[in-house]
Specification:
Chain lengths: 423, 174
């Protein structure tokens, strides 16, 4: 019996001819990504310092969660991060102003290579699975272990294969496909998810990243796409390092194989507090009054997302009583959106366009919710209390649905507003 | 053998319930006071050292924040769920907290029952009802870390990380 994509990557990285579900493997890590949160431990009483690094050239440091620093504590700890970068000679360092959400910076620069292993101690690290990479979030001490030894461990899970066939209708995005999968199939704890299918050529890298990033919300171990020409070209334009993509074997063993007809997906909304088995068509909650609309995060702060939002709000105004907050995922995306006119369109409609940061998505800064408020977000997570007060209600939808709802002041189907192409 | 009183939790218990945002950057002893404050206020005052948490599917979904460390710090001896989020499992290994997966465990126990758990053969016995289940075996390497303080002692012994920095004189929170 053959292997899935992740099994093949883990076999290569562990030096084994074959790995199977249930195996515990120790692998060489190709890329270790650190973010500002990792430096909460450096140089602080009650914590520890890293003393040795195996290979600084396999390390990337990206400040994202709290940039620019909203507190003196965050500023002090980012200083600790800069000292770390200097001490160990880390060349790939993205400081404030050259940064963005780490998973999106990894994508911008193709630090995640097809067929490779990447770890970071943020749950949405699986984002890099769009690059045919075995990427996953690990624990903070795992990062120190990977820095020190160049290795980490994985428990190999069973794989669910999703074949994405056909093309998305206009105004429907991969966020809606994710909400369909989470709503229909629920949690995937202990399992990998693998994506391919005849619709792949029509899905941008950004769209694929939305799906793999949200793999964390499925509780998947790894979320990995097949490599195709779209991906290979994207990577080669950004990273000259050699790589070897991994395709699943024809006789790969899957726990289940599920076909998704993209042409039948409709805009969906996740109800507050969870995305697992919690999605409904927009119509079911249409009219729900919102105070905040948020477009951003590692999942939905891409140029495609900003383009979709700009297309919806062009020439219109955000409803009174609604705050539309838009956070491009990286400084580079922000600049491209600026040059393309999206930022101007969004601001003319009354949106606040923030600098690139994890910001409001994790309730860190720049757009928290007060008691009893309702938010429609296109970010990653709608847990109770995630974006501020625990009594706030967080619904989740695509950037187009969020933008349309910001105009209406209530949760609204994007169909009547959407003016762009599907992505 | 671990024997303790059972606390029951449902499916999809997330990391933000274990470490809410308002204590995200707080010291561990502050973080532990906020465990489950949104979904089960007052629980941290009732839980006793040596108690056992039993939960449903997909326990620990969500972020990389070290919820397992807080569960250890409130005094739980271990936890058993129908299934664990992989990152929660990693945090359990890394911070030295025994976390097991066992099919059927959420229906086999009621709150207040006494559980008896063997880490040799991974049997989970309800001493109150007599029902016995079998948990998924944990690879030896991971179980050793869960039982011996996690990854840091290992890294420290190898000279990869420094010992814990002592609190500064006159500073800190103690």
């Amino acid at each position: 019996m053959g292997m899935t994509i992740v099994e093949k990557i883990l076999a290569r990285a562990s030096g084994a001819a074959k790995v199977s579900p249930g195996d515990m493997v120790v692998v060489d890590v190709d890329c270790v990504v650190l973010y500002d949160g990792n430096f909460f431990s450096f140089g602080k009483a009650g914590t520890r310092d890293v003393l040795k690094i195996k290979d600084p050239d396999r390390v990337v440091v990206i400040f994202d969660h709290e940039v620019p620093a909203p507190t003196a504590q965050a500023a002090a700890l980012q200083d600790g991060g800069r000292a770390f970068v200097k001490q160990f000679g880390i060349k790939r360092f993205h400081d404030v102003g050259r940064s963005g959400i780490c998973h999106a910076v990894v994508a911008d620069n193709a630090y995640a290579l097809p067929g490779s292993v990447l770890v970071a101690s943020d749950s949405h690290t699986c984002s890099a699975g769009a690059f045919n990479c075995a990427a996953r979030g690990v624990a903070g001490p795992d990062i120190m272990f990977a820095l020190a030894t160049g290795q980490t461990w994985f428990k190999v899970g069973e794989t669910i294969r999703y074949d994405l066939n056909g093309r998305l209708p206009r105004g429907v995005s991969m966020k809606d496909v994710f909400l369909h999968i989470a709503g229909t199939f629920g949690a995937h704890a202990t399992q990998n998810v693998e994506f391919g299918g005849s619709g792949l050529p029509y899905l941008s890298i950004n769209a694929r990243r939305t799906m793999t990033t949200m793999g964390a919300e499925l509780s998947a171990e790894f979320a990995t796409f097949e490599a195709d020409d779209v991906l290979i070209d994207y990577v080669k334009q950004r990273n000259q390092a050699p790589f070897e993509p991994q395709a699943p074997d024809a006789d790969a063993k899957y726990k289940d194989r599920r076909a998704i007809d993209l042409s039948r997906i409709e805009p969906l909304v996740a109800l507050p507090d969870a995305v697992i088995n919690n999605s409904v068509p927009v119509g079911q909650v249409a009219g729900t009054v919102i105070q905040q609309a948020f477009i951003g995060s590692c999942a939905n702060g891409t140029l495609d997302d900003l383009a979709a939002a700009a297309s919806v709000v062009a020439g219109r105004q955000v409803a009174p009583g609604v705050r539309l907050i838009v956070t491009p995922a990286t400084q580079a995306i922000y600049l491209r959106a600026l040059k393309a006119g999206y930022v101007e369109t969004l601001m003319e409609a009354g949106a606040v366009v923030t600098n690139a940061t994890c910001g409001a998505c994790f309730g860190g800064h720049m757009g928290l919710l007060g008691p009893g408020e309702t938010c429609l977000t296109s970010s990653t997570r709608n847990f109770k209390g995630r974006m501020g007060d625990p009594s706030a209600r967080i619904y989740m939808a695509s950037p187009a649905t969020v933008a349309a709802s910001a105009l209406a002041g209530t949760i609204t189907h994007p169909g009547e507003f959407f003016q762009g192409d599907a992505s | 053998m671990i024997t303790g009183r059972v606390w029951k939790f449902g499916d999809n218990i997330n990391t933000d319930l274990m470490i809410p945002n308002h204590v995200l950057h707080a010291p561990e002893e502050e973080q532990l006071k906020a465990v489950f404050s949104a979904n089960r206020p007052g629980w941290v005052d009732e839980v006793q050292k040596g108690d056992i948490l039993i939960a449903g599917h997909n326990f620990g979904m969500g972020s990389a924040r070290a919820g397992a460390r807080s569960l250890r710090n409130v005094g739980l001896a271990c936890m058993v769920a129908e299934s664990l989020n992989g990152l929660h499992l990693r945090n359990s290994v890394n911070y030295g907290f025994v976390a097991l997966e066992c099919e059927g465990v959420s229906t086999a126990f009621s709150e207040g029952d006494i559980a008896e758990i063997s880490l040799e053969d991974f049997t989970i016995r309800n001493k109150t009802t007599g029902v016995t289940l079998k948990a998924s075996p944990v690879p030896e390497r991971l179980l050793t870390l869960m039982q011996n303080g996690g990854t840091f002692p290992l890294l420290e012994a190898e000279g990869y990380v420094s010992p814990v920095r002592p609190p500064k004189i006159g500073g800190g929170h103690k």
